[in-house]
Design a protein that fits this description.
Length: 531
C-alpha cells in the first residue's frame, strides 16, 4: 500500500467535526487519517512519502460543476477576441489574422462582448467584417456562445438564400430596411454555418483536449463536469478521448461527461447510463437548452426586457417539445441538465420535470440567473440542484440592471438567498465563457463585484462567506453527481483530492484572491500539478 503524508499545512477539510488539520494521510488514493502533523508522522510516517506544504493553505479538491473542456481546447486554437475593448480593436484583430490566412480558409474567433466596448462603438456590421476579411469566411462567437457574427463569404459558402429554413430556436438577424443579413446569427441559426467549417481530426482534438485538461489542473481543479459532444463529434468519440487521456495517459482529472440531447440515442446504442464509467471518467446528465443569454436578449423572461419592451426573449423549445425531451431522458433513466437563464425558461423546465418521477441522480438547473419567489420554492427540492456561475456577476453587472430592470434584479444572482432557502447549489465557471480559475468565481461570490471595482458590491446582502464559496466548488460539485460520499470534503475514506494555494484564503482580504495562485493539485493522493 502506498502512503503519502501531506503535512505542515493549514488544511481546511470542509468537515464541521474537524474543520482544520495540519496533515492528511493518503493511502491507496483515499484519506486514511488526518490531524496534527506530529501525530500523523508518528503513526504513519514509517516508509511514507512526505509532502511538505510549507505552511500553505489547502482545501478539498475543487470541482467545476459546469464547463466545456473540449470547447476550451479548441478556443486555444481560435482568434482570441476576449481582450477587444472596442469595435475598432476587434476589427483590427480580425484584419491581422486575415492577412495571415489563405483565401477561403475559415477564421474562427471567440470571446467578443459588445458590453465591454467603448461607448458608441456597437457591434461590427457585415460590411465592416467583409472589409477586414474579404477573402476569408468568418465565424466569430460571442463570449456567451449564444450569438455569432459571420461575413458574406461565410454565408456564400454555406449556401445562404433569403428563403432558406432556419433551425428551430434560431434567428438570422436582418436589417429591417433592406431585409439583408446583418451578419448576426442567434442561437441555433449557427447550425446553418457550422457544417461547412472543416472539423479538426481526431489527433488534433486529442491535443486540444489534453491542453485544456492540463490547464484545468493548473488552476486547482480535481473534478470537472463538462459538456463536449458538439465539439468532440458525438458521445462515442467524446468518451473515447477522455478515456484515453484520463485513464490511459493518467492525467488524473475526474470528469463527468454531460450528453447533449441530440446524442441520447448513443446512450442507448452504447449501453451507457448516468454513472457509467469509473471514478475518473463517467457519464452525467442529458444537456438541454431552454433559452439563450441576456447579452443578446435571447434569455426567456416572463415579462419583456426593461431596455427593450418589444421582446421577452424566446424559448429554444416549446413546452410540448421540451417535455418530450425530458420524457426521452427519463426513458433512459437519465437526469437532465437544463440551461435556464431567464425565469420563464426555468418555469418551463420545472413544469416539464413535474410530470415525471425523479431519476436516480439529481436534475440540474444550470445558471438560474433570473428568478421569482415562486421559482425559489420549486427549486428547493431534494432531487434538484442549482448549478450557478458566480463569475457571471463580474461580467454582467452593471449593464444587466438596465436590461432586466430595478425590480427584477432583486431576484437575480441571489445565491445567499438560494442557500438560505434550502436550495442545493454547486458552482462552475462555464469556461471558456468565463475564465476557468475558480478563485475568480469565489471572488465574485464573496465581493459581488468585478476585479478593479471599489464599491461595496452589487446586492451586497447576497455576499457569501469564504466557507460558503469554497463549499460550492467542493461539496456542491460532488453532490450534483451523487458522489458526496466519495469527495467534496477531506474525510476518512473519501478520495484524497486537495488543492493547495499560495495564500491563506481565510485570512486574506477578498481582493487578494485575484493574485492568489494554485501551487499544487492532488488527485487520489498523487501530485498532478505543482508550481
Amino acid at each position: 500500500m502506498t502512503t503519502t503524508i501531506f503535512t505542515n499545512g493549514r488544511i481546511y477539510t470542509g468537515d464541521p467535526q474537524k474543520p482544520f488539520v495540519q496533515a492528511v494521510v493518503a493511502r491507496d488514493g483515499r484519506v486514511h487519517d488526518l490531524g496534527a502533523a506530529d501525530d500523523m508522522l508518528l503513526h504513519w510516517g514509517k516508509d511514507a512519502r512526505i509532502v511538505d506544504l510549507e505552511g500553505r493553505t489547502a482545501t478539498p479538491g475543487l470541482i467545476d460543476s459546469h464547463l466545456h473542456l473540449g470547447w476550451l481546447g479548441l478556443a486555444f486554437l481560435q482568434l482570441d477576441l476576449t481582450k477587444a475593448a472596442s469595435k475598432d480593436e476587434m476589427l483590427s484583430l480580425i484584419r491581422q489574422r486575415a492577412q495571415q490566412t489563405a483565401p477561403d480558409e475559415w477564421i474562427e474567433g471567440f470571446g467578443w462582448d459588445e458590453n465591454l466596448f467603448a461607448e458608441g462603438g456597437g457591434i461590427p456590421t457585415i460590411e465592416e467584417l467583409d472589409q477586414v476579411a474579404p477573402h476569408c469566411p468568418l465565424m466569430l462567437s460571442r463570449i456567451c456562445g449564444h450569438a455569432n457574427l459571420v461575413n458574406s463569404r461565410a454565408l456564400e459558402l454555406a449556401g445562404y438564400r433569403p428563403d432558406m429554413a432556419v433551425p428551430a430556436g434560431g434567428v438570422i438577424v436582418r436589417d429591417p430596411a433592406t431585409g439583408k443579413p446583418t451578419g448576426m446569427l442567434l442561437e441555433n441559426a449557427s447550425a446553418l454555418i457550422k457544417p461547412h467549417i472543416p472539423k479538426p481530426g481526431y489527433e488534433a482534438l486529442k491535443k486540444a483536449l489534453r491542453s485544456s485538461i492540463r490547464y484545468a489542473l493548473s488552476h486547482g481543479l480535481t473534478g470537472a463536469h463538462t459538456e463536449d459532444c458538439r465539439e468532440l463529434n458525438g458521445l462515442a468519440q467524446t468518451y473515447r478521448l477522455y478515456d484515453e487521456l484520463i485513464n490511459g495517459e493518467q492525467l488524473g482529472l475526474r470528469c463527468n461527461l454531460l450528453v447533449y440531447y441530440p446524442h441520447m440515442h448513443e446512450l442507448r446504442d452504447l449501453q451507457m447510463y448516468a454513472g457509467y464509467g469509473n471514478h475518473h471518467v463517467n457519464i452525467g446528465a442529458v444537456k438541454i437548452f431552454a433559452d439563450g443569454a441576456l447579452g443578446r436578449r435571447t434569455a426567456y423572461l416572463s415579462v419583456p426586457y426593461a431596455d427593450d419592451p418589444a421582446t421577452s426573449g424566446y424559448p429554444v423549445h416549446e413546452q410540448e417539445a421540451l417535455t418530450e425531451l425530458v420524457r426521452q431522458a427519463r426513458e433512459l433513466q437519465m437526469p437532465i441538465a437544463a440551461h435556464t437563464i431567464g425565469d420563464k425558461a426555468l418555469e418551463m423546465v420545472l413544469d416539464s420535470l413535474d410530470q415525471f418521477a425523479p431519476a436516480a441522480y439529481r436534475d440540474r438547473l444550470i445558471h438560474t440567473q433570473i428568478l421569482r419567489p415562486d421559482l425559489l420554492d420549486r427549486l428547493a427540492h431534494p432531487h434538484r440542484i442549482a448549478d450557478i456561475q458566480p463569475r457571471f456577476l463580474a461580467g454582467d453587472f452593471p449593464w444587466v440592471i438596465e436590461r432586466v430592470g430595478e425590480e427584477r434584479i432583486k431576484y437575480s444572482y441571489i445565491w445567499k438567498t438560494m442557500l438560505e432557502r434550502g436550495i442545493i447549489c454547486a458552482a462552475g465557471s462555464d469556461t471558456p465563457v468565463e475564465p476557468i480559475d475558480p478563485l475568480l468565481g469565489m471572488h465574485a461570490a464573496v465581493t459581488r463585484k468585478a476585479p478593479g471595482e471599489t464599491h461595496g458590491g452589487y446586492l451586497p446582502h447576497e455576499k457569501l462567506t469564504m466557507q460558503e464559496a469554497i463549499r460550492l466548488f467542493t461539496l456542491g460539485g460532488a453532490t450534483v453527481t451523487g458522489e458526496d460520499h466519495l469527495k467534496g470534503t477531506l474525510t476518512r475514506g473519501k478520495f484524497a483530492d486537495l488543492t493547495v494555494y499560495s495564500c491563506d484564503l481565510f485570512t486574506i482580504e477578498p481582493d487578494e484572491l485575484l493574485s492568489t495562485k494554485t501551487v499544487m493539485t492532488v488527485i487520489g493522493g498523487e501530485v498532478v500539478y505543482s508550481r
